[in-house]
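If you are new to this repository, start here. Below is one unmodified record pulled from the training split, so you can see the exact layout before writing a loader.
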Amino acid sequence: MKKRDIVNLVILIIVISFAAYRFYHRKYNFAKSRFALDTIVEITFTTSNKDSNPLLDRAFDLIEEYEKKFSFFQKGSKLWNINHSEMDSVQIDKEFFEILKISEDLFYKSGSLYDVTIGSLSELWDFSNTHIPSRDSIEIAQHSIGFEKIRYSENYLFRPSETKLNFGSLAKGYIIDRVVDFLKDNLVESGIINAGGDMRIFGYEKPVRIGIQHPRAEQNEVIEILQAGNQAIVTSGDYERYFEIDGKRYHHILNPETGYPSENAISVTVIAPSAVIADAYSTALFLMKPEKAIEIADQNENMEVIVYYQNEDEIDNLKSKNFSRYLVEK
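And here is the target side for that same chain:
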């Protein structure tokens, strides 16, 4: 065989080998969106299994199962049944215990501003209608609030009958984390779950660009652009569910001490390793004075925060010490 033929044969073998490698290591992209958790949930992922459409459906089924467990408003959910039980002692499982542990930690860190026992107050505020609850009804609801009123173990929850739990400030993040675990267990290599402002990115080799919704502009306008890797990014804002009366905005993030919507911030974005932590902290920090929120954020490793607040007619912000590294220059 001539030398030239040998070279051509080697090249052919290399090309075939590369093609075979690409064939056996092909990646397939999947995406689906569905209304769940009171918002639009989008799941996108990449895997080497070309028959992964059923996996998407199972992921959404898992979300539905958790919603039936943790929903405050859905009649018949596990949480609804606990809140409406005449018994002061009810059985709980490991997942309820985990949520309660996170809630208790933030209750004390926030000086009792973050409180999942706010359920009776939440019921008074209907943001689908332009209505402010009476002062008397708010004060009655406030008497039932206080995480110190409940006791819990890995198996049982003890609560006064008038005290109702609302996990709306962290359940969505918790569910996102469980879905990510499910996808990873099924050999999904990378993906993004976005549930109406609660986002978790995993398995990406390069950072992903994400916009922060402008709290006082049109829905698709961003105030900043972030570049984040395999982390959770969650934003809480006073523009998500609200009504206005006489020029005053009443939104869904309630301060248990006043009984009314918090007036300290207008938007808080948290970057953290898990969605449940980012979700819970975005609400807890929203309830604090911006300076205190940043002080708390800087005490947490692997967490970065930006707080937007109204300063007369201007929107100002405060950032945690390393938040700027995530910002994309405009």
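Two things worth knowing about this chain: The first helix runs from residue 3 to 24. The two ends are 61 Å apart (CA to CA).
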